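[step 3/7] fold_predict: job queued, chain A
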Amino acid sequence: MELRQLEALRTIVATGSFAAAAERLRLTQPALSHQIKNLEDELGATLLIRARPKVYASPAGELVLSAADRIFNEVGMIREHFPKSGSDKVASTIRIAATNLGIVYIFGDLCEAFLARNPRIELIFRATETSEEALRRVLDGSADVAFGPLPHEQSQLTAVTLGVAEHAFVVGPGHPLAASKFVTLTQLKQWPLVRFQPGSGSREVADRVFAGGGYPPIMMESNDAEFIKKVVGLGSGVALMPAFAMQRELRTGKLKLLKLEHESLNVEFGLSHRSNVQRKSIELLKALCVEMRGPTPRRITVASRNGHPFR
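[step 4/7] structure written:
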C-alpha cells in the first residue's frame, strides 16, 4: 500500500469521477485506474462503486478513507516537525476552500497576512460555487480549511467565528423604490428578485426573510456578485446582498440601499476544519485569523467605510 494509492482513492471520491481525479492529480486515466486496481487487489476488496452519475466509495472504501485521513494527518505533522533545509523550501501546505466572493471581499486579506508571516507554508486555493461545497471539500479530505458562513451542522468540523456581515436589499438608481430608505416585505414582493443560489450564506438569509409569505417573482439566480450588481444597477429587479460586496456601488450611487423595516439581517462567517485533524500549520492560520479579528468578531455593516474587515 502506497500513499499515492490512498491519495488517488481520496481524490476519486472527492471528485466523483476517474476523469476529474486524473486531471487533478495530473495522471492519465489508465494510470489512475491501475493504482486503484492494485490497491483493491492487495486488500482483496472492492473500494469504489462505479455508478452513474458519480463514483462513490463502497463500505470497504469508506473504511480505507477513514484510515487515510488519519495517515495524511500524521504525515502532515511529520513534515512540519522535520522541514527541509533551506529558507526557500516549502515546509507545509494548507488547502483552502472558499467561494470567490469570500476570498475577494473577506478572507483574501487574512491569507495575504498569513503568507507574509509564514513564507514557508504554501496556501492552495480551491474555488467553490457555494459555501456548502467548501465544507464538503473539507469533509471529504480534498481541502484542509473552509472559509464561509456560520454556524453549520457538521459535527465533524471545528469552527472559529471571525465576523458578522449585515445584509440589505439594493436596487438601481432608477428603480421606483430607490428613493426609499426602508421597505416592507409587501413592497418587495411587488418586484422581481435576483437571488443567490442555494448553499450560500446570502441565500440562507433570503430564505429566512421570505419564509413566512413566500418569495416575490424570481428574475434569476446567480452566485456571481458582480453580475448581480450589474443586472440590478441597470434597473432590473431587487437583490439581497452582503454589505461587504456593495460598498463601492453605494458610495458611487450605482446602487441604492433598501433596509428591511424592523429587522436586522446578519450572517456570521469564519473558518472551519476537521476536528480530528491537528496540524501546526492549521493552528498557525487559526491563531493569525483570531489575532486579526480581535477579542470579538468583526462587524461589517452597510454603514462601514469599506467592506474589507481585515484590511
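[step 5/7] annotate
The chain has a mean pLDDT of 88.
The radius of gyration is 22 Å.
exit 0
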